[in-house]
Automatic annotation (TrEMBL):
It comes from the Eukaryota. Gene3D superfamilies: Glutaredoxin (3.40.30.10). This is Uncharacterized protein. Pfam families: Rdx. Keywords: Redox-active center. Residues 1-25 are annotated as: Disordered. It comes from Chlamydomonas reinhardtii.
Length: 73
């Protein structure tokens, strides 16, 4: 997943959870500004790379002034 994101968005660096190991069974993707892009806990399934890349692209189109709304739904 990290490779797909970094390939789609040159200059973006994907980092692991800065707080250490996450909750068992979780796979969460959150932007630097706190927007939740994907939640396996909510979706109950692992994300498709294309879906995550599209969600990030949609967030990027909104720009930094857009409200930090949850995009998991």
């Amino acid at each position: 997943m990290a490779d797909a994101i970094e390939e789609a968005f040159p200059g973006v660096v994907v980092e692991g959870n800065p707080e250490g190991d996450g909750r068992p069974g979780s796979f969460e993707i959150t932007t630097e500004d706190g927007v939740h892009i994907y939640s396996k806990l909510q979706a109950k399934t692992h994300p498709a790379e294309e879906d995550v890349v599209n969600r990030i692209a949609n967030r990027a189109k909104l720009g930094p002034a857009a409200p930090a709304e949850d995009m998991c739904g």
